[in-house]
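anyone seen this seq b4? input:
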Amino acid sequence: MKRFVKAAAKSLGFEIHRISPNATNVTDPYAVMRRLIDNPQPIIFDVGANVGRTAKRFRSLFPEANIFCFEPFPSSFERLSSAFTNDPAIECHQLALADVPGISRLTVNQSSATNSLLTSDARAANYWGPNLLDTQAEIEVKTETVDRFCERKGLKHLDILKLDVQGAEFSVLEGARELLQNQCIDLIYMEMITAPTYVGQRKLHEYLGLFDTWKYEVFDFYNLCRKDARLIQTDNIMISSRFLSRYEQSGAANAT
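predicted toks r here
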């Protein structure tokens, strides 16, 4: 969603908090992730990779990372896979990650950045402007779960799970239940849409309750986006309590 917000902001009266080039590291989620993840060869899942902008950012921050990109929309996937032809440590998969494996229907909207496994809410234009979430078609896409994909690949631990799947993030998390219950994902960086945008999207408190069940903590919120006085979207970093304990011990050691 962030991809078109900036262009529409002025005409729609948005208040958007963005990162300036001179911002301190604590306000930049990518700088924070780089600071938190000290593994020189992290395993990163980019779920909702679109055409690869975020994967390129991760590659610049973690030159030796193994990055798995997931994008179900055919034209976006084609651009994504073409972008990383010469990078063998980035795998691109034409899949939608969800709560169950199988086949699902992807809602294709006027702006491909708003495509979702959920259908557009009739109220979405009130917050994001006209046309962007207007549905053009529905297509069938393959779905897989994080847990099953990792089992097939022999992956027992993820350093970063990035989610940007337009309101369907809750479903992806449910499909990662085994890894999350066992604290096998250190850090989750995800978008949370708080304004009515997709039918069936979960509310902020539902996400926080789910994370609490698995003993994941809020590290911080970033890129707050508002329409008038209402928060309509935010990014956040969640970290496992196990990882937080290691981070706090390391911080205490560095402070002494």
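Confidence is low (pLDDT under 50) at residues 7-24. The CA atoms of residues 25 and 31 lie 6 Å apart. kinda curious what u guys think
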